[in-house]
Design brief:
Strand content of chain A: 15-25%
Structural class of chain A: alpha/beta
Radius of gyration of chain A: 25 Å
Strand order of the largest sheet of chain B: 1-2
Number of strands of chain B: 2
Number of strands of chain A: 22
Shape of chain A: globular
Number of helices of chain B: 14
Distance between the termini of chain A: 65 Å
Largest sheet of chain A: 6 strands, mixed
Helix content of chain B: over 70%
Shape of chain B: globular
Radius of gyration of chain B: 21 Å
Order of helices and strands of chain B: HHHHHHHEEHHHHHHH
Number of helices of chain A: 18
Strand order of the largest sheet of chain A: 6-7-8-3-9-10
Structural class of chain B: mainly alpha
Distance between the termini of chain B: 10 Å
Largest sheet of chain B: 2 strands, antiparallel
Helix content of chain A: 25-40%
Largest interface: A-B, 26 and 30 residues
Strand content of chain B: under 5%
Oligomer: heterodimer
Chain lengths: ~525, ~350
Amino acid sequence: MHATPAPTRCDAHPAGDPAAAAPRLELRGARKSFGRVLALKRGELRLWPGEVHALLGENGAGKSTLVRILAGVHRPDTGQLLLDGQQCAFATPADAKRAGIAVIYQEPMLFHDLSVAENVFMGRQPTDRFGRIRFAEMEREVDELLGSLGVDLRSAQVVRGLSIADQQVIEIAKALSLNANVLVMDEPTAALSLTEVQRLFAIVQRLRERGAAILFITHRLEEVFALAQRITVMRDGETVFEAMTPEVDTDTLVARMVGRDLDTFYPKAQVSPGEVRLRVRGLTRGGVFSDVSFDVCAGEIVALAGLVGAGRSEVARAIFGIDRADAGEVSIAGRELRLGDPASAMAAGLGFVPEDRREQGLALELSVAHNTALTVLGRLSWHGWISRRSERRLAEDWGRRLRLKTSSVDLPAAFLSGGNQQKVVLAKWLATAPRVLIIDEPTRGVDVGAKAEIYRSISDLVVAGMAVLMISSELPEVLGMADRILVMHEGRLSAELPRAQADEQIIMAAALGRVASRESA
Amino acid sequence: MNRPLASDFPPMRLFLLLGEKREVALVAVLVALVLFTGSVRPAFLSTQTLKDVLLNVAIVSLLSAGMTGVMLMRHIDLSVSSTLGLSAYAVGALFVAHPHMPIMVAMGAGIAIGLAAGAINAAMVVFGNVPSLVATLSTLYIYRGADYAWVHGGQVNASNLPTRFAGLGTASLLGVPVLVLIAGAVLVAFSIYLGQFPGGREHYAVGSNPEAARLAGLRVGRRVAIGFVTSGAIAGLAGVLWLARFGTVDASTGTGLELQVVAAAVVGSVAITGGVGTILGATLGALILGVISISLVVLRVSPFWEQAIQGLLIVLAISSDAALARALARRLREKKRHG
């Protein structure tokens, strides 16, 4: 760092009082480049004690870089970091931690093979005079912490198998046991169900009342209004806007984020449904879901809504044949599928865009062109030889249609932003010319601008006669895009609603199993 | 929903207990093996057999303890057999040159050679970023090659060694061979370290999630280096014990041992993917393989079957681990569903 003097030790202060003269944490004119890529042009942030501060911006706006600077992972090229008005610099994540800054990443960074207590105390376990860890003391302390957060987790439990939401709570417990008074939460709600989000909000509220400063990064604007007192918006590597929450509305925020007004966010075209393309009858997998039956017609988008863990993705995986189903029938355009055989499902015209594009949808090291062509290698090859040129042509063609932003289709998929990666996954499946496309969480972790484009792509497909089954945890997306909404609760369909009759309350009630407008017995 | 959980039924519960305490399953397998062989050949159940098994297994289980420390961090150390060979010959040659060398000095020399070999591995893996499989595969050949070049067809014989040193391999204390006691002490100490000391837990943390370990402020590179150096030092000590037990060593001493060591660890439920496993498990794995090898002799089965059976055991161990993991996952799912 050029603009700052040698790193000073910045130890954690007791939680500051809300009327403090200086912000708990302030970032001024931070700039960071990686090689020739300028990731952060001008990062500005003022974080006050006792506030939840929302950080908004499209993917690629520089939020992650800013967070990593606060976490001590990156050091800014220029710029100043002040804690309680005092200038300091972090050389390592340990420095940031010592200064009382805790970062909770989207994917919790835990040791799955170790207990909750060991996770909280790793690297600073209490020891006896022989240097042995005092497990009992450690576990008691963590149990107390978890109790104070109001969650039902045991400290001696192994982390493997815990939900993402529980893992985040462990991260929060870890931060608290470190006496952190600045909590940075990077898209914590992206993978949570509604009840889990509510529990998280309650915890965040409690921390705020204790005087912690919380930086909350999210793509969901409704969360910003529910939780944050102050908002900072970033765009293209720059902090462009800061305001108190009551002073702004959604339109202002979206306009600041994308730098232009979004005309129609959900460009769903009206299509009259054609013949039945996907027919599912009595699909059952022991202990996961049972007796799931529904149809999806040509030109129709059917949404599968419900809480995370209700069995939606599992149904999709069973339809496509990745997971075994114990009973039931699936047919595509009247032809019955052999269950448990993805290759025959693909041959019958079924496409599946999985939930987790990094793990299941993309080979990140491979180029955009290779990724796009993966599903249709047979068509592009001649006696086993694959034509690079036709691969590239295919990728460029789909890239144009989906408005893919990449300087070259030869670039590894890992270099693209989340939204563009999702478009590559879409392209890969669209290249098979499917008659039925299942999309699991089409816009998870995708920024606002790219979301609208993905919606438009899906809408175009449906106009062209495709049948789409969309799994989504975002209710606005479900209501905005679907012609028909199926709701799952604990492995069963609990409701089927036409678009005109659905609203958020009805869907949520069905997802919670309180109401059933149609029992699928 | 009051449907009973699979885990409510006793057989399932036992199965899940085995999943959580894999060592219990290993002990069960070991006891079954001994009882089966004993029922066919009653002479097998003798203290002499027990002594033979322990003596045979002591060195492999020492090495597999060092291997466990490395494997827990998602690494592997294939060079242990060559380090052992080098240490055994070097200490033998030292005795030839200085017949009055104290035993402690001999052990120190062996350990020092192991430390050096381990440090080279550590440097390659930590500083050179060479995958440990490749790094230690190359040192497996390099150390062995250096051994051949130096020994040049020579041999150290038992007659060259002082009798007090050979006593390590033959003498007993309270009926337990001294060699076994030394190995046992190292195993217990390392086991306590891995289980109860912060540094030991770091082995598990690093293997469980290296990125999280870095973010938790752990010095991952240093920990990995310690793992390789420890494994090397243990291999050096094992070389000295080998020399004491067999007396005769040449440049080929210990060849092929590295795979037995990995096999013992894997049979003992040490995960090749890191984060899971104990010294007790690895030791039980070594014991199971050792008992099988003696049982085959007692049962007059062709020794050619031994390797095939070892292979079968590895497959069994890994597939039962996978089955247990699936059963545990299913139970967690049910727990969630039923509150």
